[in-house]
Amino acid sequence: MTIEPNGEGQGRGGGTVVFRGSFHRVRRESRIDLAEGAAPDPLVRPAVLGPWTGPRPANVAALLALAHHVQRMIDAGKIADRAEVARRLRWTRARVSQVMDLLLLAPDIQETVLYLEVGTHVTERALRLVVRHEDWEEQRRVWNGIRV
Question: What is the pTM of this model?
Answer without folding.
Answer: 0.69
